[in-house]
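Interim report, section 4.2 (structural modelling).
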Amino acid sequence: MKAPLFPAASFADLNARLRDLPEFDEAAAAAAQARQGQLTKPPGSLGRLEDVAVFMAGWRGKARPGIAHAQALVFAGNHGVCAKGVNPYPQDVTVQMVANFKAGGAAINQLCRASGAELAVVALELDRPTADFTEGPAMGEAEVLDAMAKGAEAVDPNADILLLGEMGIGNSTVAAALATALFGGAAADWVGPGTGADAAVMARKIAAIEAGLARHEAMRQSPLATLAAFGGREQAAICGAILAARMQRIPVLLDGFICTAAAAVLEALGVGALAHCLAAHVSAEPGHARLLEKLGKTPLLALGMRLGEGSGAAVALGVVRAALAAHDGMSTFAEAGVSGA
Amino acid sequence: MKAPLFPAASFADLNARLRDLPEFDEAAAAAAQARQGQLTKPPGSLGRLEDVAVFMAGWRGKARPGIAHAQALVFAGNHGVCAKGVNPYPQDVTVQMVANFKAGGAAINQLCRASGAELAVVALELDRPTADFTEGPAMGEAEVLDAMAKGAEAVDPNADILLLGEMGIGNSTVAAALATALFGGAAADWVGPGTGADAAVMARKIAAIEAGLARHEAMRQSPLATLAAFGGREQAAICGAILAARMQRIPVLLDGFICTAAAAVLEALGVGALAHCLAAHVSAEPGHARLLEKLGKTPLLALGMRLGEGSGAAVALGVVRAALAAHDGMSTFAEAGVSGA
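Predicted structure of the assembly:
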C-alpha cells in the first residue's frame, strides 16, 4: 500500500508524492483481451464495450472485474466571481440544489438509482465563496490542499468505480478560466452558455476570465497554482478524489465540462494522473469537446446533456456495466460449441 | 382496438391495412414537455434524455410513462445466398448461436440482463434457408407474410418497449441488398465487413448483390416485393414485429445495420411506419450511418458495436431507462424550493 497523498503540506510536497502513482496492470488487461477473443462474437464486434472491459481489468488488476459498488460523488462550491454577473441563477441555488440532492429530487438522484450508483454529496463551505478571481487568487494554497483532501477523503476505498460530478452556480466560468489558463486560446473559445447565459451574461463571463488571466499571469506557470488562482473548492475536491481513486486503482468516470476542466489541472502535472479516467460523455457545452480532445479522451456518450451534477457519468455507468456483463457472462466458442470463423 | 394486421392475405391486403396506423399522442407529449420545463434543471439541459422522455410519453399516451416490462426479440434465419461465399463463418453458426442464446451464453443475454430486458428468441425455419437471391426471389409472397405474422405474434402486448435484433449468417449481405434496392447507389456503398469479411469475401458480397439487383429489377417497384426478392425470414419478422408494436403503441429500439435495413422496407411504404422507432445506436458497419440518415433517425449511441443480436438496442435501453427515471422522479422547482433562472 502506498502512503496516502493527503494531507499534503504544500503544492511542492503534493507534486513530489505524485511521481509514483499506481500504473495500469498490463497482465490483467492482456488476460481480459485474450478472453474477449474467445467469446462467442466476431473479434472486436462489441466495439468500445470491449475496450472498456479491458480498461477496467487493467485498473482493477483482474481479468474479469465486476462492479459490486459504484460510488457517485457530487462536490458543491460557491464562487466569488458570481459578483461579476456570470450566471443567470442566484447563488443561493447552490445551497438549494444541495438540499434537493439530499432530498432525492435532482436528476443525479434518479440517474444514480437507474444505473445502480450510491450517491454522496459533499458541500464545501457554501456560505464562504472563494474570492473573486478577477480581484485576486480565488483560493490560497492551504485552502486548495484542504479542499483536495476533502475530495480524497470522500472516496470509498471499497468502490469498484467512481463517478464524479459538481454543482456550483458560476462554475462554468471557473471551468472556462481553468481551460484557457491551461491550454491557451481566447477566453471566448472556452466559454459557453452554461446553465443558460444570454449574450450579455456570456460577455461578462469572457470579460471576467480575461481580467483574471491578466491578473494571474505569473501564477499560471504551475497547474496547482492555476487551480488556486481560478478554481473553486469543488474543482479542487474533484482533483483530490481523482488522485485518491488512483491510489486505490479505482477507475473514474468524469462528467462534463466543469468536471473535466478540473481534471485537466491534474493532466497538466505531466504524470499521467488521468490514465484511470474515462470521459463519460461529451456535453453540449461547446468547450467540452475541445477539452476532451486536449486530454486525448473519447467520450462514451454524446447525448447533448449539459447539466453537470455527474449526470452524464451516471448514464455512462450503464455502458460500463453492459461492457462488464458481456465480458464476464458470455460463453467462449469452446464452451458454447459454436464454430469460429 | 384496431383490427390486427396479421394474418394478411396478400401484400395488397397488408398495404391497405397500413393506412390507419396509431399516431403519436400529441397531448401526452405536450404534458411531458411541460413537466420537463418545471424540473430542477436548466431547461433542455438533459439533452436527448428529455427528447426520449417526450417520445415515450407520446407513444405510450401518458405524461409520465414507465418501463415495467421491456421485451427483446431476436429473430434468426438462414439465407440461400450463403452459397455464394458471402460470409467467413459456416452457416451452422446460426443454429449454434440460437442454442447459445437459449443457454444464456451470448452477448445479448448479458446485455439484456444488465439493462432489464426479457429476451425471447424466435428461430425461423433454420433448416430451410431462403432461396439464393442471385438465382430467384429469396421468398414467395406467402412466405414473407408468414414470417411477418410470426414476428407480429412474438410481440408481447404488455411490453412498454420492444428491442429488436437478429441473427443469421449471411444477413449483412441481405441487408446491403435491401438498402441498395430501396435507396439506390452502388452495392459497394452499402456493403461492409459484417462478421469479418476480407477483401475476397467483400467482393463476393458485392457481386451477389449486383447479380440480385439485375435479376429482380422489376420486383423493386414495391417495398414488400423487394423484401421478398432479397430478404430473409428474420428481416420479414422484424417488419412484422415493428408493425405489431405500432398497433399496441409500443415504442421500438432498432438495433444495427441489418435490423435497420429490414425496418427500411416499412419506411419505404410511405405511411410513417417507423415513427415509433428509435435508432438505438450507429454500428461500425459502414452502411448503417448512411441508412440512418436516409431514415432521418439520430442514433442514441455510437460505440463502434457491430454484433447484431439486438446488442446495441439492449445497451440503449439503459439510456431510455435513465431518461424516464429523470422525467418521472425529479422534483419540480416548486416542490424542491429551488429558485428558477
